[in-house]
Design a protein that fits this description.
Blueprint: E1 2-4, H1 25-36, H2 51-62, E2 65-76, E3 79-90, E4 93-101, E5 107-112, E6 115-120, E7 123-127, H3 130-138, H4 147-150, E8 161-165, E9 171-176, E10 179-189, E11 192-202, E12 207-218
Antiparallel strand pairs: 1-8, 2-3, 2-12, 3-4, 4-5, 5-6, 6-7, 8-9, 9-10, 10-11, 11-12
Helix pairs in contact: 1-3
Length: 225
């Protein structure tokens, strides 16, 4: 197991007041999923002493335009849903669509620096940051996770990460900020190995995101979302 040393940042304060949400609880859950799919920092992930991993890390870090489709099983607070997901990333701009067996209609989340919007069944909510959207809907602040990095197979920047590799020096799991991310079934896409299955868990909160059947498309072959 390898570890990287983080830069230290103060923890966020928790606002204890609660606001009346405009979306259903299940739609709020889709919002949280969408917000987790966004990482606020554009700093490259920290390096570790592994030449194979370092080369792969540079490939992933340079991968700025991509699209992924599949399913995600969301388990939270004794509820479980498995919507389809389509997510397109273009530098720091992103579009996420969730639909299917989520009981939250057709949900679209779009973000760019300084603005994030979510549209679901005709309702539109916008804010300057993902944190603001969570605050509006849930009435308290939550830290934003780093699945923009995790789903590709990278640790998020600015936080300690414990990395585990197999005998081929491929990343099989990482532990970061109380979350465990596991990777299986890597496939080659235009010379870059990307995971087909990613599982993200935080046992203390009984939260699990399980991405399965991920199919990656890299620029310039991106499809309209």
């Amino acid at each position: 197991m390898s570890s990287v040393q983080p830069a230290r940042f103060p923890s966020s304060r928790i606002a204890m007041h609660r606001l009346e949400p405009v979306f259903s609880p299940r739609a709020i859950l889709s919002l949280c999923l969408g917000l987790i799919l966004h990482a606020c920092s554009s700093i490259a992930p920290p390096a570790v002493e592994n030449s194979v991993w370092s080369q792969h890390q540079h490939q992933l870090d340079a991968l700025a335009q991509w699209q992924v489709r599949g399913r995600v099983n969301v388990r939270y607070d004794n509820e479980s849903y498995t919507p389809r997901i389509q997510w397109q990333q273009d530098e720091r701009n992103y579009k996420i669509r969730l639909w299917g067996t989520f009981n939250a209609g057709n949900t679209r989340i779009e973000g760019r620096p300084g603005r994030v919007t979510m549209e679901q069944d005709g309702n539109l909510l916008s804010a300057g940051t993902p944190e603001d959207l969570i605050l509006q809907q849930l009435g308290y602040e939550l830290p934003v996770s780093y699945l923009e990095y995790w789903i590709k197979g990278l640790p998020a920047p600015n936080s300690r990460a414990d990395l585990t590799f197999n005998n081929l020096n491929q990343l099989t799991s990482l532990i970061q900020d109380g979350w465990t991310v596991s990777y299986t079934d890597p496939r080659n896409y235009d010379g870059i190995a990307l995971p087909r299955r990613v599982e993200v868990t935080r046992p203390r909160d009984d939260v699990r995101l399980r991405f399965v059947g991920l199919n990656w498309t890299l620029a310039p072959a991106l499809e309209p979302l």
